[in-house]
Design brief:
single chain; about 400 residues; alpha/beta; Aspartate Aminotransferase, domain 2; four-stranded antiparallel beta sheet; 12 helices; 13 strands; binds pyridoxal-5'-phosphate
Length: about 400
Amino acid sequence: MYRIGEEEVEELRKVILSGHLFRVGDGVVGHLHEVDQFEREWAQLIGTQYALCINGGGTAALICGLVGMGIGPGDEVIVPGYTWMASATCVLAVGAIPVIAEVDETLSLDPEDVRRKISPSTRAIIPVHMVGRPADLDAILQIAREHDLLVLEDCAQADGGSYRGKRLGSWGHAGAFSFNHFKIISCGEGGALNTNDRTLYERALVYHDGGAAFRPYAKELTIPVFLGFQMRATEVMGAILRVQLRRLDGILSDLRRIRQRFEQELSEVPGLRVAPNNDPEGDCGVVVALQFDSEAQARTFAQAPGVGGWLPIDSGKHVYSNWEPILQKRVMHHPDMNPFNHPRNQHLRTDYSPDMCPRTLDVLARTVFVSINPDWTDEQVSEHIAACRQAVKEAVAV
Ligand SMILES: Cc1ncc(COP(=O)(O)O)c(C=O)c1O
Protein backbone atom coordinates (compact mmCIF):
# COMPACT_ATOMS: atom_id res chain seq x y z
CA MET A 1 0.00 0.00 0.00
CA TYR A 2 3.01 2.27 0.55
CA ARG A 3 4.06 4.71 -2.15
CA ILE A 4 7.69 4.82 -3.18
CA GLY A 5 9.63 6.46 -6.00
CA GLU A 6 12.24 8.97 -7.12
CA GLU A 7 12.49 10.84 -3.82
CA GLU A 8 13.60 7.71 -2.00
CA VAL A 9 16.10 6.99 -4.81
CA GLU A 10 17.54 10.49 -4.45
CA GLU A 11 18.00 10.21 -0.69
CA LEU A 12 19.45 6.71 -0.98
CA ARG A 13 21.91 7.95 -3.55
CA LYS A 14 23.19 10.52 -1.07
CA VAL A 15 23.61 7.89 1.64
CA ILE A 16 25.45 5.52 -0.67
CA LEU A 17 27.74 8.24 -1.96
CA SER A 18 28.46 9.35 1.62
CA GLY A 19 30.04 5.93 2.14
CA HIS A 20 28.45 5.64 5.60
CA LEU A 21 25.78 2.96 5.90
CA PHE A 22 26.37 2.26 9.63
CA ARG A 23 24.06 4.35 11.80
CA VAL A 24 26.67 5.11 14.43
CA GLY A 25 28.66 8.05 13.20
CA ASP A 26 29.25 10.60 15.95
CA GLY A 27 31.97 12.93 14.76
CA VAL A 28 32.37 11.08 11.44
CA VAL A 29 32.93 13.55 8.58
CA GLY A 30 30.32 13.21 5.81
CA HIS A 31 27.98 10.98 7.90
CA LEU A 32 24.36 11.90 7.14
CA HIS A 33 22.79 10.66 10.44
CA GLU A 34 19.62 9.56 8.66
CA VAL A 35 18.52 7.12 11.39
CA ASP A 36 19.09 9.70 14.15
CA GLN A 37 17.02 12.21 12.23
CA PHE A 38 14.30 9.70 11.44
CA GLU A 39 14.03 8.81 15.13
CA ARG A 40 13.59 12.47 16.07
CA GLU A 41 10.99 13.01 13.32
CA TRP A 42 9.11 9.79 14.13
CA ALA A 43 9.02 10.62 17.87
CA GLN A 44 7.65 14.05 17.02
CA LEU A 45 5.03 12.69 14.62
CA ILE A 46 3.77 10.03 17.04
CA GLY A 47 3.99 12.43 19.97
CA THR A 48 6.40 10.63 22.26
CA GLN A 49 9.66 11.69 23.79
CA TYR A 50 11.65 8.76 22.42
CA ALA A 51 11.67 6.64 19.27
CA LEU A 52 14.03 3.81 18.43
CA CYS A 53 14.29 2.64 14.82
CA ILE A 54 14.89 -1.11 14.75
CA ASN A 55 16.12 -3.61 12.19
CA GLY A 56 14.09 -6.81 12.56
CA GLY A 57 10.70 -5.23 12.11
CA GLY A 58 7.67 -4.86 14.30
CA THR A 59 8.57 -8.22 15.86
CA ALA A 60 11.88 -6.86 17.15
CA ALA A 61 10.15 -3.63 18.22
CA LEU A 62 7.63 -5.61 20.29
CA ILE A 63 10.42 -7.68 21.86
CA CYS A 64 12.39 -4.53 22.68
CA GLY A 65 9.22 -3.03 24.17
CA LEU A 66 8.74 -5.99 26.52
CA VAL A 67 12.45 -6.00 27.41
CA GLY A 68 12.10 -2.29 28.16
CA MET A 69 9.20 -3.08 30.47
CA GLY A 70 11.23 -5.73 32.28
CA ILE A 71 8.78 -8.52 31.38
CA GLY A 72 10.13 -12.06 31.81
CA PRO A 73 9.57 -15.52 33.33
CA GLY A 74 6.70 -15.62 35.82
CA ASP A 75 4.75 -12.96 33.91
CA GLU A 76 1.56 -13.28 31.88
CA VAL A 77 0.82 -10.88 29.03
CA ILE A 78 -2.68 -10.63 27.54
CA VAL A 79 -2.83 -10.62 23.72
CA PRO A 80 -5.81 -10.74 21.34
CA GLY A 81 -6.70 -13.92 19.44
CA TYR A 82 -6.78 -11.96 16.21
CA THR A 83 -3.36 -10.54 15.39
CA TRP A 84 -0.21 -11.55 13.55
CA MET A 85 1.43 -14.31 15.63
CA ALA A 86 4.36 -12.01 16.52
CA SER A 87 2.16 -10.18 19.07
CA ALA A 88 2.19 -13.43 21.05
CA THR A 89 5.63 -14.81 20.10
CA CYS A 90 7.28 -11.61 21.37
CA VAL A 91 6.00 -12.53 24.84
CA LEU A 92 7.62 -15.97 24.60
CA ALA A 93 10.83 -14.39 23.26
CA VAL A 94 11.32 -12.65 26.61
CA GLY A 95 10.48 -15.81 28.59
CA ALA A 96 6.94 -14.83 29.60
CA ILE A 97 3.58 -16.47 28.78
CA PRO A 98 0.94 -15.06 26.40
CA VAL A 99 -2.68 -15.33 27.57
CA ILE A 100 -5.00 -15.22 24.57
CA ALA A 101 -8.16 -13.12 24.86
CA GLU A 102 -11.20 -12.56 22.64
CA VAL A 103 -11.69 -9.76 20.16
CA ASP A 104 -15.11 -8.12 19.98
CA GLU A 105 -17.16 -6.90 17.00
CA THR A 106 -14.63 -4.09 16.44
CA LEU A 107 -12.05 -6.82 15.63
CA SER A 108 -9.80 -5.64 18.48
CA LEU A 109 -9.15 -6.79 22.03
CA ASP A 110 -12.38 -7.21 24.01
CA PRO A 111 -11.95 -5.21 27.26
CA GLU A 112 -14.46 -7.44 29.10
CA ASP A 113 -12.49 -10.56 28.24
CA VAL A 114 -9.27 -8.79 29.28
CA ARG A 115 -10.87 -8.28 32.71
CA ARG A 116 -11.81 -11.96 32.88
CA LYS A 117 -8.30 -13.07 31.90
CA ILE A 118 -6.38 -11.00 34.46
CA SER A 119 -4.62 -13.09 37.11
CA PRO A 120 -2.16 -12.20 39.91
CA SER A 121 0.64 -12.93 37.38
CA THR A 122 -0.61 -10.55 34.66
CA ARG A 123 1.96 -7.81 34.01
CA ALA A 124 0.99 -6.33 30.65
CA ILE A 125 -1.60 -6.06 27.88
CA ILE A 126 -0.85 -5.85 24.16
CA PRO A 127 -3.78 -4.20 22.37
CA VAL A 128 -3.35 -4.54 18.61
CA HIS A 129 -4.68 -1.97 16.14
CA MET A 130 -5.42 -4.57 13.46
CA VAL A 131 -5.87 -3.49 9.84
CA GLY A 132 -5.43 0.09 10.98
CA ARG A 133 -8.49 -0.01 13.28
CA PRO A 134 -7.85 1.49 16.75
CA ALA A 135 -8.36 -0.77 19.76
CA ASP A 136 -10.59 0.44 22.61
CA LEU A 137 -7.75 2.27 24.34
CA ASP A 138 -9.96 4.11 26.85
CA ALA A 139 -11.27 0.85 28.27
CA ILE A 140 -7.95 -0.97 28.10
CA LEU A 141 -5.97 1.82 29.75
CA GLN A 142 -8.63 2.07 32.47
CA ILE A 143 -8.25 -1.65 33.21
CA ALA A 144 -4.46 -1.27 33.14
CA ARG A 145 -4.62 1.57 35.68
CA GLU A 146 -6.96 -0.40 37.96
CA HIS A 147 -4.65 -3.44 37.96
CA ASP A 148 -1.29 -1.69 37.66
CA LEU A 149 -0.52 -3.27 34.27
CA LEU A 150 1.74 -2.09 31.48
CA VAL A 151 0.35 -1.48 27.98
CA LEU A 152 2.35 -2.13 24.82
CA GLU A 153 0.40 -0.98 21.75
CA ASP A 154 1.01 -3.11 18.67
CA CYS A 155 0.70 -0.50 15.91
CA ALA A 156 2.35 -2.65 13.23
CA GLN A 157 -0.68 -2.38 10.96
CA ALA A 158 -1.56 1.17 11.91
CA ASP A 159 1.42 3.44 11.15
CA GLY A 160 0.21 7.01 11.73
CA GLY A 161 -3.32 6.12 12.87
CA SER A 162 -4.86 7.87 15.83
CA TYR A 163 -7.40 7.52 18.65
CA ARG A 164 -9.36 10.53 19.87
CA GLY A 165 -7.03 12.81 17.92
CA LYS A 166 -3.80 11.46 19.39
CA ARG A 167 -1.55 9.11 17.44
CA LEU A 168 -1.59 5.39 18.14
CA GLY A 169 1.58 4.32 19.89
CA SER A 170 1.53 7.32 22.21
CA TRP A 171 -1.28 6.06 24.48
CA GLY A 172 0.30 3.06 26.18
CA HIS A 173 3.63 2.79 27.98
CA ALA A 174 5.14 2.01 24.56
CA GLY A 175 4.07 1.49 20.97
CA ALA A 176 5.63 -0.84 18.37
CA PHE A 177 5.48 -0.16 14.62
CA SER A 178 6.34 -2.17 11.51
CA PHE A 179 7.66 -0.88 8.20
CA ASN A 180 7.63 -4.20 6.34
CA HIS A 181 6.44 -4.63 2.77
CA PHE A 182 2.75 -4.89 3.70
CA LYS A 183 2.53 -1.75 5.79
CA ILE A 184 1.31 1.83 5.27
CA ILE A 185 4.89 3.06 4.97
CA SER A 186 7.83 0.77 4.35
CA CYS A 187 11.55 0.30 3.96
CA GLY A 188 11.14 -3.37 3.03
CA GLU A 189 11.65 -4.58 6.60
CA GLY A 190 12.02 -2.52 9.76
CA GLY A 191 10.25 -1.21 12.81
CA ALA A 192 10.20 1.37 15.57
CA LEU A 193 9.47 1.56 19.28
CA ASN A 194 8.04 4.72 20.82
CA THR A 195 7.77 5.64 24.48
CA ASN A 196 7.85 8.48 26.97
CA ASP A 197 9.57 6.34 29.58
CA ARG A 198 13.32 6.97 29.79
CA THR A 199 14.17 3.68 31.51
CA LEU A 200 12.06 1.65 29.05
CA TYR A 201 13.79 3.44 26.16
CA GLU A 202 17.26 2.86 27.56
CA ARG A 203 16.64 -0.84 28.15
CA ALA A 204 15.34 -1.23 24.58
CA LEU A 205 18.28 0.79 23.25
CA VAL A 206 20.82 -1.40 25.01
CA TYR A 207 19.03 -4.65 24.06
CA HIS A 208 18.84 -3.76 20.35
CA ASP A 209 22.53 -2.85 20.17
CA GLY A 210 25.00 -5.54 21.17
CA GLY A 211 27.74 -2.93 21.11
CA ALA A 212 25.95 -0.53 23.43
CA ALA A 213 28.74 -0.50 25.98
CA PHE A 214 31.15 1.04 23.47
CA ARG A 215 28.84 3.69 22.00
CA PRO A 216 29.18 7.37 22.78
CA TYR A 217 25.65 7.31 24.26
CA ALA A 218 26.76 4.76 26.90
CA LYS A 219 27.99 7.54 29.19
CA GLU A 220 24.50 9.09 29.22
CA LEU A 221 22.70 5.89 30.24
CA THR A 222 21.00 5.85 33.63
CA ILE A 223 20.86 2.02 33.69
CA PRO A 224 23.69 -0.53 33.77
CA VAL A 225 24.60 -1.85 30.31
CA PHE A 226 23.60 -5.50 29.81
CA LEU A 227 24.25 -7.87 26.93
CA GLY A 228 21.99 -7.22 23.95
CA PHE A 229 21.64 -8.42 20.38
CA GLN A 230 22.11 -6.80 16.97
CA MET A 231 18.96 -5.08 15.72
CA ARG A 232 20.43 -1.71 14.72
CA ALA A 233 18.82 0.15 11.82
CA THR A 234 20.98 1.09 8.84
CA GLU A 235 21.39 4.48 7.20
CA VAL A 236 19.70 2.95 4.13
CA MET A 237 16.57 2.33 6.22
CA GLY A 238 16.78 5.77 7.78
CA ALA A 239 17.00 7.53 4.42
CA ILE A 240 14.02 5.66 2.96
CA LEU A 241 11.93 6.06 6.10
CA ARG A 242 12.47 9.82 6.26
CA VAL A 243 10.87 10.16 2.82
CA GLN A 244 8.18 7.61 3.68
CA LEU A 245 7.31 9.63 6.77
CA ARG A 246 6.65 12.67 4.58
CA ARG A 247 4.28 10.58 2.46
CA LEU A 248 2.38 9.12 5.44
CA ASP A 249 -0.33 11.71 6.10
CA GLY A 250 -1.13 11.91 2.36
CA ILE A 251 -1.62 8.14 2.17
CA LEU A 252 -3.77 8.18 5.31
CA SER A 253 -5.99 10.98 4.07
CA ASP A 254 -6.55 9.17 0.73
CA LEU A 255 -7.32 5.87 2.49
CA ARG A 256 -9.69 7.58 4.92
CA ARG A 257 -11.49 9.54 2.20
CA ILE A 258 -12.11 6.36 0.21
CA ARG A 259 -13.20 4.37 3.27
CA GLN A 260 -15.63 7.11 4.27
CA ARG A 261 -17.14 7.09 0.78
CA PHE A 262 -17.63 3.32 0.94
CA GLU A 263 -19.20 3.53 4.38
CA GLN A 264 -21.48 6.44 3.57
CA GLU A 265 -22.73 4.92 0.34
CA LEU A 266 -23.08 1.42 1.71
CA SER A 267 -24.58 2.29 5.10
CA GLU A 268 -28.11 2.58 3.69
CA VAL A 269 -27.95 -0.64 1.69
CA PRO A 270 -30.30 -3.20 3.33
CA GLY A 271 -28.38 -6.23 4.57
CA LEU A 272 -25.01 -4.46 4.81
CA ARG A 273 -23.59 -3.61 8.23
CA VAL A 274 -20.41 -1.62 8.70
CA ALA A 275 -18.40 -3.12 11.58
CA PRO A 276 -18.36 -0.96 14.73
CA ASN A 277 -15.21 1.10 15.08
CA ASN A 278 -13.56 2.44 18.25
CA ASP A 279 -12.65 5.63 16.40
CA PRO A 280 -13.74 6.02 12.76
CA GLU A 281 -11.81 9.31 12.47
CA GLY A 282 -8.56 7.78 13.63
CA ASP A 283 -8.94 4.52 11.68
CA CYS A 284 -6.21 4.36 9.03
CA GLY A 285 -8.68 3.30 6.32
CA VAL A 286 -6.74 0.22 5.27
CA VAL A 287 -9.96 -1.76 4.85
CA VAL A 288 -13.71 -1.36 4.81
CA ALA A 289 -15.01 -3.87 7.37
CA LEU A 290 -18.50 -5.26 6.74
CA GLN A 291 -20.35 -7.76 8.91
CA PHE A 292 -22.98 -10.37 8.14
CA ASP A 293 -25.24 -12.70 10.10
CA SER A 294 -23.49 -15.83 8.92
CA GLU A 295 -20.23 -17.07 7.42
CA ALA A 296 -22.14 -18.29 4.34
CA GLN A 297 -23.41 -14.75 3.69
CA ALA A 298 -19.95 -13.29 4.25
CA ARG A 299 -18.36 -15.75 1.80
CA THR A 300 -20.99 -15.17 -0.86
CA PHE A 301 -20.44 -11.42 -0.58
CA ALA A 302 -16.63 -11.61 -0.58
CA GLN A 303 -16.50 -13.85 -3.65
CA ALA A 304 -18.96 -11.86 -5.76
CA PRO A 305 -17.46 -10.32 -8.93
CA GLY A 306 -15.64 -7.01 -8.44
CA VAL A 307 -15.82 -6.97 -4.61
CA GLY A 308 -12.29 -8.22 -3.91
CA GLY A 309 -13.27 -9.09 -0.35
CA TRP A 310 -11.64 -11.48 2.08
CA LEU A 311 -12.57 -12.96 5.44
CA PRO A 312 -10.17 -12.41 8.36
CA ILE A 313 -10.86 -15.99 9.48
CA ASP A 314 -8.88 -17.03 6.36
CA SER A 315 -5.83 -14.94 7.22
CA GLY A 316 -3.66 -17.84 8.44
CA LYS A 317 -1.31 -16.98 11.28
CA HIS A 318 -3.34 -13.86 12.09
CA VAL A 319 -5.87 -16.17 13.80
CA TYR A 320 -4.82 -17.75 17.12
CA SER A 321 -6.25 -21.18 16.21
CA ASN A 322 -3.47 -21.39 13.57
CA TRP A 323 -0.66 -20.55 16.00
CA GLU A 324 0.46 -24.21 16.13
CA PRO A 325 3.94 -23.53 17.61
CA ILE A 326 2.28 -21.76 20.53
CA LEU A 327 -0.70 -24.10 20.95
CA GLN A 328 1.70 -27.05 20.89
CA LYS A 329 4.29 -25.22 23.02
CA ARG A 330 7.05 -25.75 20.46
CA VAL A 331 9.15 -22.69 21.25
CA MET A 332 12.91 -21.98 21.10
CA HIS A 333 15.66 -24.20 19.71
CA HIS A 334 16.49 -25.77 23.08
CA PRO A 335 14.04 -27.24 25.63
CA ASP A 336 15.70 -25.48 28.56
CA MET A 337 15.06 -22.12 26.87
CA ASN A 338 11.41 -22.92 26.19
CA PRO A 339 9.37 -20.59 28.45
CA PHE A 340 6.75 -23.33 28.83
CA ASN A 341 9.40 -25.40 30.63
CA HIS A 342 10.62 -22.57 32.85
CA PRO A 343 10.04 -23.30 36.56
CA ARG A 344 8.66 -19.81 37.16
CA ASN A 345 6.00 -20.35 34.48
CA GLN A 346 4.64 -23.67 35.72
CA HIS A 347 1.68 -22.14 37.60
CA LEU A 348 0.71 -19.83 34.72
CA ARG A 349 -2.23 -20.38 32.34
CA THR A 350 -0.99 -22.29 29.31
CA ASP A 351 -4.11 -24.36 28.63
CA TYR A 352 -4.45 -23.31 24.99
CA SER A 353 -6.85 -24.93 22.56
CA PRO A 354 -8.04 -24.02 19.04
CA ASP A 355 -11.57 -23.31 20.33
CA MET A 356 -10.62 -21.28 23.43
CA CYS A 357 -11.90 -17.98 21.94
CA PRO A 358 -15.17 -18.91 20.21
CA ARG A 359 -16.38 -15.32 19.91
CA THR A 360 -13.23 -14.37 18.02
CA LEU A 361 -13.67 -17.23 15.55
CA ASP A 362 -17.33 -16.31 15.09
CA VAL A 363 -16.77 -12.60 14.39
CA LEU A 364 -13.80 -13.28 12.09
CA ALA A 365 -15.94 -15.68 10.05
CA ARG A 366 -18.83 -13.19 9.70
CA THR A 367 -16.65 -10.24 8.69
CA VAL A 368 -15.54 -9.26 5.19
CA PHE A 369 -12.67 -6.86 4.57
CA VAL A 370 -12.46 -4.94 1.32
CA SER A 371 -8.85 -3.72 1.08
CA ILE A 372 -8.49 -0.11 -0.06
CA ASN A 373 -5.88 1.14 -2.47
CA PRO A 374 -5.09 4.82 -1.74
CA ASP A 375 -4.43 5.37 -5.47
CA TRP A 376 -7.88 4.32 -6.67
CA THR A 377 -9.57 6.95 -8.83
CA ASP A 378 -13.11 8.12 -8.02
CA GLU A 379 -14.34 5.93 -10.88
CA GLN A 380 -12.61 2.87 -9.48
CA VAL A 381 -14.13 3.54 -6.06
CA SER A 382 -17.58 3.88 -7.67
CA GLU A 383 -17.10 0.54 -9.46
CA HIS A 384 -16.15 -1.20 -6.21
CA ILE A 385 -19.12 0.30 -4.37
CA ALA A 386 -21.47 -0.75 -7.18
CA ALA A 387 -20.05 -4.29 -7.00
CA CYS A 388 -20.67 -4.33 -3.22
CA ARG A 389 -24.29 -3.17 -3.71
CA GLN A 390 -24.86 -5.97 -6.19
CA ALA A 391 -23.08 -8.56 -4.05
CA VAL A 392 -25.17 -7.91 -0.97
CA LYS A 393 -28.32 -8.93 -2.83
CA GLU A 394 -26.79 -12.35 -3.46
CA ALA A 395 -25.41 -12.57 0.09
CA VAL A 396 -28.69 -11.90 1.92
CA ALA A 397 -30.46 -14.47 -0.25
CA VAL A 398 -28.20 -17.21 1.21
C1 LIG B 1 -0.13 -6.90 14.10
C2 LIG B 1 1.31 -7.19 13.77
N1 LIG B 1 2.21 -7.22 14.76
C3 LIG B 1 3.52 -7.44 14.52
C4 LIG B 1 3.98 -7.67 13.24
C5 LIG B 1 5.41 -7.96 13.02
O1 LIG B 1 6.01 -7.01 12.19
P1 LIG B 1 7.28 -7.40 11.28
O2 LIG B 1 6.82 -8.31 10.20
O3 LIG B 1 7.76 -6.08 10.78
O4 LIG B 1 8.25 -8.05 12.19
C6 LIG B 1 3.08 -7.65 12.17
C7 LIG B 1 3.56 -7.89 10.81
O5 LIG B 1 2.87 -8.15 9.88
C8 LIG B 1 1.70 -7.40 12.43
O6 LIG B 1 0.80 -7.37 11.47
